[in-house]
Amino acid sequence: MATIREVAKLAGVSVATVSRALNQNGYVNEHTMKKVQAAIQELDYRPNDVARTLFKGTSNMIALFVPDIMNPFFPELARAVEDTANKAGYTFILCNTDNNQEKETQYLHTLLQKTVGGVVMVSSSIASETLNKIQVPMVALDRKIPNLTSITANNYDGAIEAVRYLQKIGCKRIAHISGPKDTTSAVERTTGYLEAIKNEEWFSNDFIVEGNYTFEGAYQATKRILQERPEIDGVFAANDLMGVGVLKAAEELNLRVPKDLSVIGFDGIELGKFANPTLTTMGQPIYEIGKRAAEIIIEQIENKDSNMDSEQYTAQLIRRQSTM
Amino acid sequence: MATIREVAKLAGVSVATVSRALNQNGYVNEHTMKKVQAAIQELDYRPNDVARTLFKGTSNMIALFVPDIMNPFFPELARAVEDTANKAGYTFILCNTDNNQEKETQYLHTLLQKTVGGVVMVSSSIASETLNKIQVPMVALDRKIPNLTSITANNYDGAIEAVRYLQKIGCKRIAHISGPKDTTSAVERTTGYLEAIKNEEWFSNDFIVEGNYTFEGAYQATKRILQERPEIDGVFAANDLMGVGVLKAAEELNLRVPKDLSVIGFDGIELGKFANPTLTTMGQPIYEIGKRAAEIIIEQIENKDSNMDSEQYTAQLIRRQSTM
DNA sequence: AGGGTTTATGTAACCCGTTACATAAATGTT
DNA sequence: AACATTTATGTAACGGGTTACATAAACCCT
Hints:
By secondary structure, the first copy, chain A, is of the alpha/beta class. Helices cover 46% and strands 16% of the residues of chain A. In chain A, the strands form two sheets. In chain A, strands 2-1-3-4-5-11 form a six-stranded parallel β-sheet, with helices on both faces. A six-stranded mixed β-sheet of chain A has the order 7-6-8-9-10-12, with helices on both faces.
C-alpha cells in the first residue's frame, strides 16, 4: 500500500499539501491539485484509516449490541443500522451479548480501545456504573436504558390495541405470554395487557405466563396454560417468536387457529408471514427504528449533540390468519 | 483515557518498560513490574488499540461478508464467526453485500484502509480481479470462490440423499425448486438432484423451477409448477427458506403435506422447526462451518499460512413432519 | 508605494504504542 | 581476575496520517 509520503514525492510536493488536497481543506493550487491527483491515481493510493483515526482520536465505526443475532427480531434491526452507518461512511461492528453483563462490559472496553465512534445498544442488562464510566456516544434501541436517548415502539399502547382487538373479535378469555421481566419492552407490553383487561371479572394472575421471548419458552408455557385453563380463546404473545410458539402448541393440542383460539403477536417480523397460519401481530416499524437509532448516534458523533429526545414509534395492527 | 506515557511517569519508568511489562516481552524486573501494574491500576489504563494497529500494520478485526443478514440462514453463520473471533480476541465486522459486486469491492477497500486482519466471504459475485489485487487473508464460506480456501457442505451428496429419500418414501414425481445459478451451493444441489433422478423416465426440465433461494420466489414458483403438473408428489427445495415457501404454496392449493405432497429442504435452519408442518431437511452443521471458517482465517492471520485445504461437511437428513 | 489580505506550500510536532539499539549492572564461567 | 552472558532499563525512531505555524508570493486597496 502506498503512503502519503510516496504520493508527495511522486507529485513533487510536501505531505501537508497532499493531505490538504485529499481533504479539500486549506489552500491548494489548481495545478498542484492535478499533480497530486495524478500521483494518487498512479499509485492507487488510499489513505490509511488507522493513522487518521489515531490522530483524530475517534474512528468511523459504529457498534451494535444485540442479545443474539439468531433471534429473528434482530437481523432486520442490524440490517437497518448497518445500511445507515454504511451510507454515512461508517463501518459496522456487531456484538452478541447474550444479555450477559460481563460480555457487555468486555465489549465496551474493547471498542473503547479502538476509539469506536458510537454504540447502539439493545440491552436489558448493561450495568449503569459501566455506562457512567464510559465516555462514548450511545443510544438505546428497542429497550430503554436509564440516562440514554432511546428509540422504541410504543409498547404500552400497542399491547392495549392488541388485546382490545382480540376482545373486539369476540375473545372471552385472553391469556398473555409475557417476556422477560428485566426487559422494558416486555414489561410495557404486559402493563398494556393489564390495562386492557383490568375490568374483566374473569381475570386472575394465572392468565399470564412467562415465555422468555423465545419460541420454546412460549411453546411450553402455552401448552401448560391451555391445559390448565381450556376456556382460553385468545392469546396475546409479547413477541412474534413466541406467537409462533403459541401456534405450535395449539396445533399440538389439536386446537384450530383461529377457530378455537385467536393468536396475536408483537413486532411484525417476517417469520409471522412464514408461519402457518400466518400470524396476526402488532407490527412495529423495525427497519425505521433501527435506521433512526443509527442516525441519532451519527448525529451525536458528528455534532457532539448528546441531548437528543427519545422517540417512540406506534405499532400497527397487521391482521392475518391467526385471528378472525 | 490515560496513555502509556502517563503510566510510565507515574511508575517512574520509561514507556518502553511499560510496554514490555504490558506485553510480557523482554526483561522486566519483578519489582518494576509491580510498580507498573500499580500505575496501570491507578490510572485504569488500557492500551490504545489504534496506535498498536498502526504500528503493527494489521488489526485484530475480522469481517464477514454475507448477502443479507435478514436471510435466516446467515444469522447462525454470523453468530459462529463472531463467537470464534471474539474468543480469539478479534472484533467482528458485518457487511451485507446484497450480492452486489460494487458493494463488495467498496467494502473490501474500506476494510483494507482499516488494515483488517482477514475476511470471511459468503459470495457469489465477488470479482476475481478485485480478489487478486487485494492482499488480505480471505476464506470462502458456504459458497466456493476460485483460488480461495472454502468451507462448505457437501451439497452434491446432500442433494442426492434428499431426493433418494423422497423416492424411498414413495414419491413418484419429484420437482426441484432451485437456487440462483450463479451460486455454487445451488448449482451443486441441482446437480445432485439431476444425478438422483437421471434414470426416471418421467423427468423433463420443467420439473425444475428457479426460486432464487427466497420464500417468495419459491412460493410463486411452486404455485406455478403444481398447477401445471398436478402429478407432482414430492418437492426438493434447494434451501429451507424456499421449503417453507413450498409449504405455504401447498397450503394455498389445498394440498395436504405430507399426505398429498412431501417436501424436503436443505440447510437445517431453525425456521424449519417453527414451520407448520415442520420441515424435513438436509441439515448442514451451520455453526460448525462458520466456526471453522473463522478458525481458518485466524490461522491464516497469525501464521501467514495461506495454503489451507478446503473442507466439505456432510449434510444430515433431519426427518420432520413435511415428509413421511 | 506601503500595508493588509488572500493564496500556496513546506516543516515539524503530534496522535500512542512498539521495538531496535545502546548502555550498564548483575551474574556466571574458567 | 578477566571475560561472556543474562538481566534491566532508557532513548529515540517508527508507523502514516493531520494540522499549527512559519514563510513567501500574489493580489488588493488607498
